[in-house]
Design brief:
CATH superfamily of the largest domain: Peptidoglycan recognition protein-like
Family: Belongs to the N-acetylmuramoyl-L-alanine amidase 2 family.
EC number: 3.5.1.28
Radius of gyration: 23 Å
CATH architecture of the largest domain: 3-Layer(aba) Sandwich
Oligomer: single chain
Structural class: alpha/beta
Low-confidence stretches: 3-16
Number of strands: 9
Number of helices: 9
Keywords: Cell wall biogenesis/degradation, Hydrolase
Helix content: 25-40%
Mean pLDDT: 92
CATH class of the largest domain: Alpha Beta
Shape: globular
Strand order of the largest sheet: 3-2-6-1-9
Order of helices and strands: HEHEEEEEEEHEHHHHHH
Organism: Pseudomonas aestuarii
Largest sheet: 5 strands, mixed
Enzyme class: hydrolase
Amino acid sequence: MRILCLALWLTLLAGCTGGPRIDDRYTAIGQSSRVQYIVLHYTSTDLPNSLRLLTEEEVSSHYLIGDTPPTIYRLVDENRRAWHAGDSQWQGRTWLNASTIGIELVNRGYTDGPNGRHWQPFAPAQVEALIALLKDIMQRHQLAPGSILGHSDVAPQRKVDPGPLFPWKRLADAGLLPWPDAQAVAQQQALFSESLPTVVWFQQQLQRQGYRVPEHGELDEATRNVLAAFQMKYRQARYDGEPDAETAALLLVLGGPAS
């Protein structure tokens, strides 16, 4: 009897020290993943430095993908917040660390020299590893195509990664994001060549895409930076931040009827 009482007491004690008892038999249907977007970055350095910076400093990301070989490292659990986006905004949501998964790609970004800026291309095997990871994340979190963003999309005043050599079209071909129909763009471009929309129109269309951009009708540095970020994604041959007929056509085809 004394042994039985002791066992009961130990069981009760274990229950007290282990926290409250939780009943998990019921699950609410009114829920969704905290993850709304995936944000892509390049590390601006090699693999050893990338691992050191992302594990020993304040900055972090959920995943890091090496270049050769394209090993996928999980550095932060998806249920936890990684410090990768900083001051950021998309579709009205701000400070996106809380609602995004960050993926860093080992890539040196760019170097400036006497002949201009040189960007490092992404290794094809690295891109294929990224696509496999993106498909897995999007399926598990039930993200719609178009939920993948660049750091330059969510912070265009501060960041340019993943840069103009990142293969966004390859991701579109894999079904991961919408892509403007080339024939529709050409038709709209011909019309816009006759009459270019106002700066306010460009600002409104960029806002419809999700960008944080002024809406004052002035072609200021902030507006140019957002235009350049959009162009780096959808027209990588020229990303000068100038509002032109082709950029207008891309915005219209991607965003639907003009306002």
